[in-house]
Design brief:
This protein is α/β, with parallel strands linked by helices. It has 33 helices and 40 strands. Helices cover about 35% and strands about 20% of the residues.
């Protein structure tokens, strides 16, 4: 092991810039298996300098004991809260109470190195340095070093005295409760205490970008949103933004959720800086401090039902979910559905999935603010990059097994850890390198191999991973100081790590995930003195796993567009950036383009290839695939996924058990969003397993609509536009309305054929099918995927449906002063004026017709006639006419004899078909359907047919305009 402790005849460290204590301290921490620290004062400015080293020591299971005091109230509460992070991971942190005692001035640092039970080395420093920036970096502080075993008598005496002091009756374990009381009573001079200047950190203030995002967050809440997603590129301070917004909202209790402890610890430090008086606790596998003001929780722990039940759903004012691109997992969804804060903020630096409703829907389709790395570079907030696409000619990736969207890890590592490949990488690096390089490797074996190869070539290099000899903090400090030139890393620097000094990134591993690629790129984009640009050396091989990089980096819509732009020299690059691809890479990409897909299956496979995972229903919808065509060929969306090998054994089991219900959701006609809102309420309340009362479902549905103001404004009648007030003062009115709309539809409504999937058992909405607890999570996820698709499609209608659909231009001028009504229009719902014809009600937009038609948007809608079977009689209906139709139900239809009705039936595959006919009655309960055009034969009405709308009239072409 490289010796990091200063070795010289000088046992006295005298401080100042020429002999600062900090390097000695860090070197000792990085080698120790046991660390004992006793200081009178601890300040945040000093603790920050050694905190990463202490955390790395805990990662390698070193034993840490820290003792400080409240002498003269100099120790800072925020520093004590930071120490509690170590305590929650197993460190023993205690405080000496000076109540009644004149002083506490001890400063000692003891480091031991064990091999098993045997103590083989160590050192102790006793002197004048407290833990503060001044004392550790530039203050004139004397600290005498005593080494073991060289001076074992003195060393063991110091260790013995520490043991006595640590068990003194005036010493007690540090707790957040004690820190709260200490912060409240603390009185300390801001000028000077015991000869040492106060180093309180200045209050943090938002950057210009953060200020803009804070205004957007304030505006979105004013508009009624209770959830929102913010995309901020790495380096722009998304965690700081969250802490500032908590301050802006004046939230008292906050829950911060992430999937890695590293992220939680960095977030805690940020929040403690802005909210120094708040108590902070952790809810992880090691700590369960749920009563703190700010709780930082591991989603793996808190996302379990038994842990969620420890909290009331509304106990937090503010919920932050970091690295939100991970939030599509069942665990995240369960947590997000459970809590009902005043506001939930999703944060991500990687926007690759923010246009997909399966992620964005968790924030109620509310993208509040986005500032990606391109915008950050253009605004001079991030560093420009010079990108080099290197042909990875030493590796044939087609020989490496590819399973479940990934290379076989062992075979990949073996193929990459070769002398030929390392020689190529070294040659490229020597030609293009700058000063400080971070290289991403695929495995520990790969990282160690590369570090050894570079070291043998005279390059100062080190491998850094969870079990490496060199701790991460030491490697980063040596890289910044110039004593290391290259760090070969495995998984330690993807998320939650600041590396501003890095000026070269070398990507030596295939990154199947676009998110991972952007995270690795982002490690080097932070600004740093002396760094003009980031050099990116990206090794690209002959495999589909490399195809996602161009789209991620340049924002192009397809591989074809990228190759065309690259060859024409007009790639969309941020200012100051540069990109170059070797000819071998372009040749490989051109070969791939020849095999790119075109049909439904091909589109599915292309999406799967681009994302390195199964595409979602929303992605297929947004890729332009018609779901009616999917059902015609495969039966349903999930049958397509199963056909392409996208369902595992458990998912296939759930599909077989619940295919009819999945198809019901997939095909649901949506004149409003209510069905999907009620479905989301059922999912959030676990109503498929535990039937919920209609009142509880109505309230939760109302809360969902309140979170989604666009849906509320679009769908609710005027009397419910102030829904929050209605829920509070007139819940009965809302319950009646909700029961008459989606609840009625769920239990069969006016449907005569087939058993409905739900029934009312007393006042509870109960499924008519059994869902086992074993299948619940998979069933929920599959239903949620379909609901996301339906809502995404529904939300798109108002925004782009009118532009996408063919609404005919008025053929005659509309008189000035006409007053309009808005009605739903279904361009895909072709009412056959001939024989029954396949159609669906999945696409909807709004059109306007004059008020003289006396239309009501809650009952009436517009569809198009298709064919000429009704082209006859006094009021002929011709192909393409706009039909004004009124929805009817069994209890509202009244007499339908001799009236023109739109009739629905299902074909053998379950798809909907529609026809327009005059309903005639032969005898008691015997009906037939008659055409106005004598060229078309009559046919009998059967049990499988359902009149669903009454024709109110034909709207003139010139009187239907886009809404």
């Amino acid at each position: 092991m490289t010796a990091l402790i200063k070795q010289s005849d000088e046992a006295l460290v005298t401080g100042g810039k020429s002999d600062a204590f900090l390097p000695q301290l860090l070197g000792a921490i990085n080698q120790a298996t046991e660390i004992d620290i006793t200081v009178a004062f601890i300040r945040q400015s000093g603790l920050e300098l050694i905190f990463d080293a202490l955390k790395d020591a805990m990662d390698r299971r070193a034993v840490i004991r820290v003792l400080t005091s409240d002498y003269l109230d100099v120790t800072e509460p925020q520093a004590l809260r930071r120490l509690m992070l170590l305590a929650e991971r197993g460190a023993d942190v205690r405080l000496f109470s000076t109540d009644g005692d004149p002083s506490f001035h001890i400063k000692s640092y003891i480091f031991l190195r064990h091999s098993g039970e045997d103590l083989f080395g160590g050192c102790a420093f006793v002197g004048s340095s407290n833990i503060s920036n001044m004392a550790l970096t530039r203050g004139l502080e004397w600290n005498l070093r005593v080494d073991y075993p060289a001076d074992s008598v003195k060393f063991l005496e110091i260790l013995s005295k520490f043991e006595l002091l640590f068990s003194d009756s005036r010493v007690f374990p540090l707790s957040h409760a004690w820190i709260d009381g200490y912060a409240a009573r603390r009185r300390v001079s801001l000028q000077m205490v015991s000869g040492e200047p106060e180093e309180e950190l200045l209050p943090a203030t938002p950057t210009e970008i953060q200020a803009d995002a804070l205004l957007a967050l304030q505006a979105t809440r004013s508009a009624g949103h209770r959830r929102g997603l913010v995309v901020l590129a790495t380096g722009l301070g998304k965690t700081w933004l969250a802490a500032f917004d908590v301050q802006q909202l004046k939230a008292r209790r906050v829950l911060f959720v992430a999937h890695r402890e590293e992220i939680l610890m960095q977030a805690e430090a940020t929040f403690a800086r802005i909210h120094p008086d708040a108590s902070i606790g952790y809810y992880t596998g090691k700590a369960k401090e749920w009563e703190a003001d700010f709780v930082f929780a591991s989603v793996q722990t808190l996302g379990r039902d038994r842990h969620l039940q420890q909290f009331a759903p509304d106990c937090f004012d503010y919920l932050v979910v970091d690295e939100f691109h991970h939030a599509d997992s069942t665990t995240y969804r369960r947590l997000i559905d459970y809590f009902q804060p005043r506001f939930m903020l999703g944060l991500t630096a990687t926007p690759e999935r923010t246009d997909q409703a399966d992620i964005l829907s968790l924030c109620d389709d509310n993208l509040v603010f986005e500032w990606n790395f391109v915008e950050g570079i253009n605004a001079d907030l991030l560093c420009p990059f010079h990108y080099h696409g290197i042909h990875d000619q030493a590796v044939d990736y087609t020989e490496i097994p590819w399973r479940n969207g990934r290379f076989d890890p062992s075979d990949l590592s073996n193929k990459l850890a070769t002398r030929a490949r390392a020689k190529h990488a070294l040659s490229v690096w020597r030609e293009l390198r700058q000063s400080r390089t971070l290289a991403f490797c695929v495995s520990r074996t790969h990282a160690e191999f590369m570090a050894d190869y570079f070291s043998q070539a005279g390059i100062r290099a080190a491998a850094v991973h969870a079990k490496s000899a060199m701790p991460r903090n030491a490697a980063l400090k040596q890289l910044e100081a110039g004593s290391l030139e290259v760090i070969f890393s495995v998984d330690l620097f993807n998320e939650g790590t600041d590396l501003p000094a890095i000026d070269t990134v070398m990507m030596l591993r295939p990154t199947e995930s676009k998110i991972l690629f952007l995270q690795q790129l982002g490690r080097g984009l932070r600004l740093h003195p002396g760094k003009d640009y980031l050099r990116v050396l990206d090794f690209i091989g002959n495999h589909k796993a490399f195809l996602n990089k161009p789209e991620s980096l340049f924002g192009v819509s397809s591989l074809r567009e990228f190759v065309r732009r690259q060859q024409n020299g007009n790639l969309p690059l941020p200012k100051g950036c540069y990109a170059n691809y070797e000819l071998g890479v372009i040749g490989f990409l051109n070969e791939v383009i020849k095999t790119l897909p075109k049909g439904i299956v091909d589109t599915y496979e292309l999406l799967k290839l681009a994302e390195q995972r199964q595409p979602s229903a929303v992605e297929m919808y947004r890729a332009g695939v018609n779901f009616t065509h999917i059902r015609s060929r495969f039966g349903s969306w999930f049958d397509l996924v199963a056909d392409r090998g996208g369902l595992d054994e458990a998912q296939q089991r759930v599909l077989q058990r619940h295919r009819p219900y999945f198809l019901e959701v997939e095909k649901a006609a949506m004149t409003k969003s209510y069905k999907m809102v009620l479905l989301e309420a059922l999912l959030e309340l676990d109503g498929f397993i535990h039937p919920q009362t209609t009142q509880d479902l109505a309230i939760r549905s109302g809360e969902i609509l309140l979170r989604r103001p666009p849906l509320m404004r679009k769908d609710l009648p005027a009397r419910f536009q102030n829904l929050a007030e209605v829920l509070a003062s007139k819940p009965g009115q809302w319950l009646t309305y909700w029961n008459s709309n989606p609840v009625n539809a769920f239990v069969g409504g006016n449907k005569k054929q087939g058993k409905p999937f739900f029934e009312l058992d007393a006042d509870r909405l109960k499924p008519n099918f059994e869902l086992t607890v074993e299948d619940r999570d998979l069933f929920h996820a599959m239903v949620q995927e379909l609901a996301n698709y339906k809502l995404a499609m529904y939300m798109d209608r108002e925004q782009k449906g009118a532009k996408a659909s063919v609404v005919k231009t008025p053929t005659a001028p509309v008189e000035a002063g006409v007053v309009w009504d808005k009605l739903p229009f279904f361009p895909n719902l072709k009412i056959a004026c001939g024989h029954f014809k396949d159609a669906d009600g999945e696409n909807e937009t709004l059109v306007k017709i004059p008020t003289h038609y006396r239309a009501d948007s809650s009952r009436h809608f517009i569809a198009c006639a298709s064919g000429n079977s009704m082209d006859g009689g006094k009021n002929p209906i011709r192909d393409g006419d706009y039909l004004l139709l009124e929805l009817v139900s069994a209890d509202q239809a009244g007499s339908i004899s001799n009236q023109i009705m739109a009739v629905e039936r299902q074909d053998a595959s379950g798809d909907d078909q529609y026809v327009l006919r005059v309903v005639r009655k032969r005898g008691d309960g015997d009906y037939y359907l008659q055409a106005n055009n004598p060229d078309y034969a009559d046919f009998d009405a059967t049990e499988g047919m359902r009149p669903f709308a009454r024709l109110r009239g034909v709207v003139a072409q010139g009187e239907v305009v886009e809404g």
